[in-house]
Design brief:
Strand content: 15-25%
Number of strands: 25
Oligomer: single chain
CATH class of one domain: Alpha Beta
Low-confidence stretches: none
Radius of gyration: 23 Å
CATH superfamily of one domain: P-loop containing nucleotide triphosphate hydrolases
Structural class: alpha/beta
Helix content: 25-40%
Largest sheet: 12 strands, mixed
CATH topology of one domain: Rossmann fold
Number of helices: 18
């Protein structure tokens, strides 16, 4: 089969202005970035919706992923293309790729095979500069904090209690912990600091959860930055430069519109990770997709226990969204891994391993049901999968009275996803609202415990002494009603990345809680999760090249 870049190069797709026009988006609301990409102004949400049909939101999630990923984005794109082939009005809402994974271990995030969004290399690399704007805004905050301390420190900020970190959109473990301000008096006040990756920045979360510019300003103003020598909180509003942040983020607030290989429109906007952030594209992009189509397809990062839980308990609660159905993606190779097969031998047929791996699938099915939503289990078929292996999964899922669909979108595009598309259309008729896992009035400890027990299957949760101090601080600041965003290993239902399948009789350990008052949630740190990843032994960056005709290969 041809590479992703070769497939895309051989397909002629329409100018994005034509795609936007077909959706009903007016020229005056488009901010073009060439012929292939346009931003769509927020004012486009004020236009009267063209269709009289009830719009439906579909969430695509997955079972616990393997190292290579299970094709959640590819399935989302394939599903949209399948719906388009069935004559439906459909639009995607996806996250923007981060350069860290693109250059690290995962590669690009624009789908693959015949289920891609294009232009892939531009989307995967600099795109429209949203990540740059978020990085710049984040680091302006850091610069203003350090400058305030240097310029006589009227707010009495304690340099030892600055909780705001700098960020960059690259995996670089050496920047996790650094010392700032060295070199003498004129170079600043020495203190400890560090970097997170841009995808984990609170500014990323703020932009993705903001409904409009006014909401963005409110969230920025209430962002907690540091504490004084007497322990009083310092919020961003006190430094009096919110306007500059608004200016830096002004263009980034408008969602980006691209298309799939088959001309399906896709809003690609915002890119928080789900293992260390809330894992969903922007609220604005999701609402824009729903406004301009009858079906909006969106995804949440990593497995259902991470991204989808945060989608429901954070994003849907904040934006008043309620999906009509869930697509739960799984693969034969993932089931084999969770069934005990060695990661190096997942391509070989092993019916026993598939059977054993169904325990992981079962837990994720139970998790979807806890949110009171109908679902389709989508088997993303790979070339090495056998009919006998797939038959085991289909029989099992059908025995649970759940809809099953095999999808071949990677090799066949929308045609290979028609079965999945029809299944989603058939089940997406549940009008019952979703049920959050916890109430805002629950204590922080209760919220973490409910997520850990209901989503992960943990017996209990342990809080370290440091985490207990954080709980007291949260209570002192009156922030106990905020939802929790649990940072956890994506490769396991537990907080131990080595425990595959369906772990039982385990305890989740919380080692700290970070306050993201601007974003509106509490980041609960478990295990050894790092907010600044490192590069692997052989980074994807070693495989990227620019050909003589300017085509970029090796990304995605």
């Amino acid at each position: 089969m041809l590479s992703n870049s070769e497939i895309a190069k051989n397909i002629t797709y329409r100018p994005i202005a034509e795609v936007a026009a077909d959706m009903g988006i007016k020229d005056l609301n488009m901010i073009p970035y060439g012929k292939e990409i346009t931003k769509v102004h927020l004012d486009a949400l004020k236009q009267t919706r063209a269709s009289n049909k009830a719009n439906k939101l579909i969430l695509v999630s997955a079972t616990t992923p393997t190292r290579a990923g299970e094709g959640k984005t590819t399935t989302s794109i394939g599903l949209a293309q399948g719906m388009k082939r069935l004559g439906e009005s459909v639009c995607l809402a996806l996250r923007e790729p981060s350069l860290g994974p693109c250059m690290g271990i995962k590669g690009g995030a624009t789908g693959g095979g015949y289920a891609q969004i294009v232009p892939a290399s531009r989307i995967n690399l600099h795109f429209t500069g949203d990540f740059h704007a978020i990085t710049s805004a984040n680091n302006l905050i850091s610069a203003m904090i350090d400058n305030h301390i240097y310029q006589r420190n009227k707010l009495n900020i304690d340099p030892r209690q600055i909780i705001w970190k700098r960020v960059m959109d690259m995996n670089d473990r050496s920047l996790r912990n650094i010392v700032l301000g060295l070199g003498g008096k004129i170079h600043g006040v020495p203190r400890e600091g560090g970097f997170d990756i841009t995808a984990a920045s609170e500014i990323m979360a703020i932009l993705c959860l903001a409904n409009d510019h006014d909401d963005l300003r409110r969230r920025l103003n209430r962002t907690l930055l540091a504490y004084t020598y007497t322990g009083e909180p310092i919020y961003l509003k006190q430094l009096n430069f919110t306007g500059s942040l608004m200016a830096l983020l002004n263009d980034a607030m408008h969602p980006n519109l691209v298309q799939s290989l088959e001309g399906c429109p896709a809003f690609v906007h915002g890119g928080p990770f789900a293992n260390i952030a809330h894992g969903c594209n922007s609220v604005i992009a999701t609402k824009m997709a729903m406004h301009y189509s009858d079906w909006a397809i969106t995804e949440a990062g990593f497995g259902f226990d991470l991204g989808a839980e945060k989608f429901f308990d954070i994003k849907c609660q904040a934006a008043k969204l309620d999906p009509a159905a869930v697509v739960l993606v799984t693969t034969i190779r993932a089931l084999k891994l969770h069934g005990g097969k060695d990661a190096k031998n997942l391509e070989n047929e092993d019916l026993a391993a598939v059977l054993a791996g169904l325990e992981n699938l079962n837990k994720h099915i139970e998790n979807v049901q806890q949110f009171n939503k109908p679902m389709v289990v989508a088997l993303n078929r790979f070339a090495a999968d056998t009919d006998a292996e797939i038959a085991i999964v289909k029989k099992h899922v059908n025995s649970l009275a759940i809809r099953f669909a095999e999808s071949r979108h990677f090799s066949e595009g929308g045609k290979g996803a028609e079965e999945l598309a029809q299944a989603v259309i058939d089940v997406a008729n549940n009008k019952q609202p979703f049920e959050p896992l916890y109430a805002s009035t629950d204590s922080v400890m209760q919220k973490v415990t409910k997520v850990s027990q209901k989503m992960y299957g943990a017996n209990d949760v342990a809080f370290t002494k440091e985490a207990e101090k954080d709980l007291l601080q949260i209570k002192r600041l009156g922030l106990e009603k905020l939802p929790v965003c649990i940072a956890k290993a994506p490769s396991s239902l537990s907080d131990d990345p080595k425990l595959h399948g369906r772990p039982r009789d385990f305890q989740v350990t919380v080692r700290g809680i970070q306050i993201n008052a601007g974003a509106g949630f509490l980041v609960v740190l478990t295990g050894n999760i790092m907010r600044m990843p490192g590069l692997p032994k052989v980074p994807v960056a070693t495989e990227i090249e620019v050909q003589e005709d300017g085509t970029i290969t090796g990304v995605g």
